[in-house]
Amino acid sequence: MADTDDLHPEASAQRDAGKAAGQVAANDIKWLMESKQGRRIMRRLLAEAGIHRTSFTGNSETFFREGKRAFGLFLEAEVTRHSPEGYILMLQEGMK
Predict the structure, then answer these.
(1) Do residues 37 and 60 touch, judged by C-beta distance below 8 A?
(2) Given this model, what pLDDT does residue 20 score?
(3) Considering the chain, what percentage of its residues have pLDDT values greater than 70?
(4) Domains in the chain, number
(5) How far is CA 3 from the centre of its chain?
(6) What is the model's pTM?
C-alpha cells in the first residue's frame, strides 16, 4: 500500500512548509515576550485593541471596534499559547 505522501508530494511539501512557518511564528512570539520591552509593546497593543472593553457604541463604530478587538484576541491567544509565562509576567508588570 502506497503512502499518501508518495501520491501527493506537493501536499506533503506544503504541509511541511506550514509547520515550519508555524514554528517560526511561535519562536517570534517567545522572543518578543522574553524582553521587558517586548512585553510592554504587547501590553500596549492589547490595550489599544480593547480586548477587555465593550465594543458596542450604538452606531457603526461598533464594527470598527470589533475588528480591532478580534485582532487583539488573536494576539492574546498567540501569546498565551506560545509564551504563557511571558503573558503572566506581562500582566504582573502592568500592575506596577
Answers:
(1) no
(2) 86
(3) 93
(4) 1
(5) 34
(6) 0.80
Write out the residue range of the structural domain in which residue 60 sits: 7-94
Q: Which amino acid, one-letter code, is at 82? A: H
- Report which of 91, 89, 86 is spatially closest to residue 51, judged by C-alpha positions: 91
Q: Nearest-CA neighbor of 48 among 20, 70, 78, 68?
A: 68
Q: How many residues does the chain have?
A: 96
Give me the amino acid identity at 6.
D
- Looking at the predicted structure, is the pLDDT value of residue 63 above 60? yes
Is the residue at 2 inside a domain? no
Q: Helix, strand, coil proportions of the chain in percent (round to 5)?
A: 80, 0, 20
Integer-rounded Cα Rg, in Å, for the chain is: 19
Residue (of 21, 49, 46, 34) closest to 84 by Cα position: 34
Give the pLDDT confidence of 18-42 residue by residue, as tens digits.
Answer: 788 889 999 999 999 999 999 999 9
